[in-house]
Write a structure and sequence with these properties.
With 171 residues, the chain is of the alpha+beta class. Helices cover 18% and strands 40% of the residues. It has three helices and nine strands. It has an eight-stranded antiparallel β-barrel with strand order 1-2-3-4-5-6-7-8. Strand 1 and strand 2 form a beta hairpin.
């Protein structure tokens, strides 16, 4: 019985890791260039961000070698800011843009950067563990239409339903 519970617990805790089949993490990733503030330009909507606009993510180093993640967004319906603090760690090498992130205790989900402006780290395309999670982040609140088209094309090629993308308001 203990062995069965251990196996089930391990499966449940690791169920949110991994990535969609055609998604591959960026190699040659440099965390120090990635740290700082990012604006959410586009996403597939989900319950924990539903109704939020002006969404940002801020990444900084933690004392334990991980990454402090602070996500923030404005919930217009209640006229309040919502903030969530989490932590992230590399799954494999620290030069592979595949991290596990947690906002809820021992439960981790995948954070996979599959496209990135390698020179200046001005934009990033991110996937979660499956095709339900997708983001376009940028160092600026808006981006050129060509970048949005590239994001849609590369995401669709990887199996994401880009017809369901939303573009939250940024100020």
């Amino acid at each position: 019985m203990k062995k069965t519970l251990l196996i089930l617990s391990t499966l449940l805790l690791s169920a949110c890791l991994g990535m969609p089949e055609r998604v591959k993490p960026v190699l040659g990733f440099e965390l120090n260039k990635y740290l700082g503030k990012w604006y959410e330009v586009a996403r597939l909507d989900h319950s924990f961000e539903e109704g939020l606009s002006q969404v940002t993510a801020e990444y900084s180093l933690r004392d334990d070698g991980g990454v402090l993640v602070v996500n923030r967004g404005f919930f217009a319906e209640d006229n309040i800011w919502k903030e969530a603090e989490g932590k992230a760690y590399f799954v494999n090498a620290d030069t592979e843009a595949y991290l596990k992130v947690s906002f809820f205790g021992p439960f981790y989900g995948s954070y996979v950067v599959f496209e990135l402006d390698h020179d200046d780290y001005q934009y990033a395309f991110i996937s979660g563990p499956n095709h339900k999670y997708l983001w376009l982040l940028s160092r600026t609140p808006t981006v050129k239409p060509e970048l949005i088209e590239k994001f849609k094309r590369m995401s669709a090629d990887r199996g994401f339903d880009t017809t369901k993308l939303i573009f939250p308001e940024q100020k």
